[in-house]
Inverse folding.
């Protein structure tokens, strides 16, 4: 019984010290805006979006083709009389 | 806009249905709004009470908590309630904050001051009870962070030990032990309040 009372007092004390508090409406609105704006980037990372992925892929393909052509020319110069 | 059948005014409201989690993973803005509206105040209170009632610090940590939650929503496996999961992230962010503060304290000595606004919300009945509350607040904030966290989760949030064990990533038995030590330490500090 003593323990129960003690537990009860502990709860009462901590509840009185740690009363619920709400953030300011300005902070809440701003954070919500940031989160809803940022959620697209978070769930669909920036680099996966087509407007970023397509130029990257095009650049990589161009570099690969260029390297292939250069390699062909080097091989041709080296092995053909 | 999808409505997930959650009373917005109820401070203990939860949204744990599968469709909601699916929508969050897809990045549906209405699901994000619902998550935020349901839990922002509770998470804010939890954090605020762990950081010596400092609004500025609490705001930073709440922001970090929600950003981290949305980033890792794909990892959420529905094994716990969303609120438990958010509490777990918030607790880690508070611990990170104190770690950073400890590192910075090596170079500068700036104490974390509680906000006046935070102290006002206590609204004590009399000068005596105000003094008692202030003593209790000081005793609580002087406790090691894991003691403070476990006491707040148990007595303020009124969470069962099993849920606290998920949040603090310890076994229920370890939480029981931690609670016993935290209670003992708080009582000791209340019995001999620090001077100055």
């Amino acid at each position: 019984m003593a323990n129960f009372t003690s537990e009860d007092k502990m709860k009462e004390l901590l509840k009185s010290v740690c009363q619920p508090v709400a953030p300011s409406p300005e902070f809440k609105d701003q954070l919500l805006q940031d989160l809803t704006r940022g959620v697209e980037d978070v769930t669909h990372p920036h680099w996966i979006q087509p407007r970023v992925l397509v130029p990257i892929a095009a650049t990589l393909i161009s570099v690969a083709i260029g390297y292939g052509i250069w390699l062909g020319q080097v091989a041709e110069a080296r092995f053909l009389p | 806009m999808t409505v997930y059948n959650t009373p917005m005014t109820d401070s203990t409201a939860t949204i744990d249905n599968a469709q909601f989690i699916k929508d969050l993973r897809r990045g549906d803005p209405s699901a994000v709004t619902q998550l935020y509206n349901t839990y922002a105040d509770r998470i804010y209170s939890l954090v605020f009470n762990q950081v010596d009632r400092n609004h500025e610090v609490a705001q930073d940590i709440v922001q970090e908590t929600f950003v981290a939650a949305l980033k890792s929503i794909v990892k959420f496996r529905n094994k716990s309630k969303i609120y438990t999961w958010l509490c777990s992230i918030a607790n880690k962010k508070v611990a990170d904050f104190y770690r950073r503060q400890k590192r910075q304290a090596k170079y500068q000595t700036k104490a974390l001051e509680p906000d006046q606004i935070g102290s006002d919300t206590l609204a004590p009945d009399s000068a005596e009870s105000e003094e008692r509350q202030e003593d209790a607040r000081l005793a609580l904030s002087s406790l090691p962070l894991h003691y403070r966290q476990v006491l707040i989760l148990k007595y303020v949030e009124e969470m069962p030990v099993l849920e606290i064990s998920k949040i603090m990533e310890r076994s229920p038995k370890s939480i029981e032990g931690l609670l016993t030590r935290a209670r003992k330490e708080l009582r000791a500090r209340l019995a001999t309040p620090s001077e100055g």
